[in-house]
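Fold these two proteins, one after the other.
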Amino acid sequence: MEERRLRPPSPLLMLAEARGIFEFNASLLLSPLLMRAPKGDGHPVLALPGFLASDLSMAPMRRYLRDLGYDTYAWRMGRNVGGVSRMRAALRDRLTEIHTATGRKVSIIGWSLGGVYARDLALQLPDIVRSVITLGSPFSGDVRATNATRLYEALSGETVDDASELRMAIAGDLPMPTTSIYSRTDGIVNWRTSVLRPSDTAENIEVYLASHIGLGVNAAALWAIADRLAQAEGEFSHFDRSGPFAIAYAPPKNAQSA
């Protein structure tokens, strides 16, 4: 069956990405409320940055999760210039290093391209991955529908059509709890490419009005991440949208409607 051809987000949505700074500032103002999220159990969490970003972009999230009680880790590979196939070995080594050092399964959070890496890692090393959370990651359907595709291909030396079997595997079901957080107002990635197939251990969480570059510092997204990570190992229940940021989340049924 031929994939549905999608378009990248409109130029207007792309220009509106500048609002990401306001999302960050709002999270700072709401930090007392964010700290009311469920506390962590100390398990390791690896944060993977998006395309062209570095560990600095994930620092606010890592600090927030560390304050909640998680053992957070950066990827330590500099700026992410892409290459799903090229980065596989280094990412496996980093994940294995964390697992060996802690003796515990690792949750992985990936922002944008980092989420594509996260899903691939989970398929390669399922026995040491506890859960996967992606933020505005283009892993499903027509993954060319982003405003970063040409630059990704130029810098990484790979095309998004390379390794089609690998791409299809990343888009499929994962053997551990999985959450995709996305926004229909994403100005970089067509939101439809971030929607996974819901199941008893997989879910989509749509955050209203979030930007792509602000999704990792958006207060509602951070609350959802903390809530998902707080689940006991081996257990999963779908996200309860009745918390303090309930107004920021779309109903679950909206995740699959165009």
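Now the second one:
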Amino acid sequence: MAGVAVVLPYLIEGAALIVPIALAAGAAAVWHKRTQTQARDAALARDAAHAAALAQAEARHAAQQQEAAREQGTLAAQIESLRAELAQRKSVADALEAALEGERALRDEAMQRAGRIASEASRLKLMSSTFERWHEQMISLMAQNSDMHKKNHELSSIVSHVLIVSLNASIEAARAGAAGRGFSIVAGEVRTLATRSQELSKSYRDSLNRNDLITAATFQDIQAGGKMISATLASVEASSQQLHAQLEATRAGAQA
């Protein structure tokens, strides 16, 4: 017992020392566990934050990919629209080029027609001048025929007078008897010549009448032909002016 009593104070003192140490160790353990828990919680929080940030980044990336896909689709649609518009414009340009080529062909053809019309107009003018000259010549010929009629009429009067004179001479020769026989022969020859001259004058008059008919008909034909040529020339000139105006309008439209 005495030994126990001796040791007991030491035990009590040791227990007094051990209890704080144990308490300190427990507190340290608790602090360490709390520290670990806090560290684990912080790590979990960081992992959760990282996961949230990663999820947000992935969401943003997905959204960006979707936006890029939409923009790519929009761009592709715009490209297709531009291609279609370019194709349409090319088609319109080809159509315009074909139309211009057709207009050029029509203009060239119109120019050729205008040249042909001008050439025909020149020929018609020459023919019109020729018909005018013929007209003047026919007027002169008709005047000559009229003058020849007058001269033939005078000749016929002279022949008739000679015939009458020859008849009177034959009568006077017959009255003179044998003395007037030679004079009677001369009077007979004169009467024969007068008769032949009268027949020739009549034939000449008939020829002049036929010439009058032919000349009058020819004169009328020349007048009708001249009028037709004048009308045709006026029509050709009007067509030429109209075609020239069309060409000028086409040229002005092409320049505009």
